[in-house]
Amino acid sequence: MRRKIKDILGLVILLLAVTSSNIVFGQEFQFEEVVKLDSTVTKDELFNRARSWFGKTYNNEKYVIATEDRSTGEISGNGSMNYNTRKLYFGVGAVIGDVDYKINIYVKDGRYKYVFHSFRHTGSYVGGSSPISYGMLTKDSEVPKPSRGGANSKAWNDIREQTEIKIKKTIEGLKSSMSIKYEGSGEW
Fold first, then answer.
1. What is the pTM of this model?
2. What is the secondary structure of 114-153 as a DSSP string?
3. Phi first, then psi: what are they for 122, rounded to 5°?
């Protein structure tokens, strides 16, 4: 009887763990879209366009690109943007910092898919004080407790708003680059 109870409790704990991990994943702050182009644009051409976009968008693509697989049509990497604000709230100096994220671009003939995800905020050291970091950005309206101090809805909402504005501009640049023929180092 005790063994059955332990088995049932183990199963309940496993189900709760799986359910809660799906809930957290479902709330992730991410931007994703499949973009269809002219069906005559080849996978190889789109791969070159995406590779070129990485090089133009980030200071040094060698440090950004983590996966570059022409055969599967995947380029993945890590990006970072500065979070700065003109808003005033408690601890703003220690909250100003960086938002790091991951980028995945998948290409096929006539279309590509981008995913910007895993956004993570890290604050800055100010005057000997520890940073105030909010960690993983989510769509959750509940403000998480940062690495130091109490939760601050002004900071949380502003970090997400600024991130969204900057990523949307980055996506505009990607779409523009993906719609222009790759010139490469051909005839010159």
1. 0.81
2. EEEEEEEEE---BTTBPP---EE-BS-SSPPP-SSS---H
3. -130, 125
Q: Tokens representing 154?
A: 């002004």
pLDDT digits (tens, 9 = 90+) for 28-54: 899 999 999 999 999 999 999 999 999
First-to-last C-alpha distance (Å) of the chain: 81
Contact at 8 Å (CB) between 120 and 101? Answer: yes
Which among 97, 96, 57 is positioned nearest to 79, based on CA atoms?
Answer: 57
Q: What is the CATH number of the domain that holds 115?
A: 3.30.530.80
Q: Is residue 21 part of a domain?
A: no
Q: How many CA atoms lie within 13 A of 23 on its CB side?
A: 7
Q: Is 22 a domain residue?
A: no
For residue 74, what are the CA distances in angstroms to 28, 44, 66, 68?
22, 11, 10, 6
Which amino acid belongs to residue 150? G
Q: Give me the number of domains the chain comprises.
A: 1
Residue 100 token pair: 């790091």
